[in-house]
Amino acid sequence: MFRNVLGSVVALVGAAAAVQSPFQRWYQNRLGRDYRVQDLFDGITGVSSSVMASILLPFLFAALVTLVGVVLRSRWVVALAGLIVLGFTVLWMVRQGQAADGLSVDSDGSGLRWGVAQALAGGVLLLLGALVMSGRPRRAERTGRTAEPYPVPQADHPDTWPPTQEPGPSAQTSPGPEPEADPYTGPGRHRAPRDDEDTAQHPVQYPDEGEQHGSDRYRPPHP
Question: For the chain, is the Cβ count within 10 Å smaller at the N or the C terminus?
């Protein structure tokens, strides 16, 4: 975040310097806004130019590109703006050198002036701002997750839940688990089933045949 802010400030300063440079003297006493854009391709002439048709026009376009790059936090867009400023400045220097049979910086104020240096400095600051910026974070970094959080299952091993094991030869032929032995061998080992639990606790006693005819066991009903 800090790098984006610092790089944006440096880039905006460079764009402002490039836009303000045509209002300075570029060669001898001639202002940069007096050079027409078409003179950069056809050759430098003495014809004066309007402000919006001068070399200021590509610098304004570079400033607009810089604003877009800062808003989008795009390093490449800001770098493109710097290349536009440097490209048109170097192209002017080539055309002016052809028209004046060379370029020079003299102490008496002739030759290249401050406006050219300011334009070059603006282009360098734009490239420096693009270098300082960290750019927009990737989608995986914003979400804090990887693009593929889980491994993709292979075709021969489909992902199933719950995990299952296909029956193979060993699974089909292997015997089942043996029953565990009862560790208790004392009395009462064999208990009655749960359904017969009440019967086992309270067994039904049937009288013997002899007892059925006994006097104490059988009494005739009263008439």
Answer: C
The domain 2-138: what is its CATH number? Answer: 1.20.140
> Where in the chain are the domains?
2-138
Lowest mean pLDDT among 83-87, 110-114, 175-179, 190-194: 190-194
Q: Tell me the residue type at 203.
A: P
| Dist. CA 157–CA 154, nearest whole Å | 5
Residue 202 CA: distances (Å) to CA of 35, 98, 192, 205 = 122, 127, 12, 9
- As a whole number of angstroms, the distance between CA 86 and CA 125 comes to 10
110-125 pLDDT, tens per residue? 778 899 999 999 999 9
DSSP secondary structure code for residue 27 in this structure: E
- Sign of the torsion angle spanned by Cα atoms 144, 147, 151, 157: positive
Q: Do the Cβ atoms of 19 and 121 come closer than 8 Å? A: no
Contact 32, 19 (CB under 8 A): no
CA dist 151 → 96, 102, 145, 154, 159 (Å): 63, 66, 14, 9, 10
Instruction: Catalogue the E-assigned strands of the chain.
Output: 25-27, 30-31
161 pLDDT above the threshold of 90: no
Helix, strand, coil content of the chain in percent (nearest 5)? 50, 5, 45
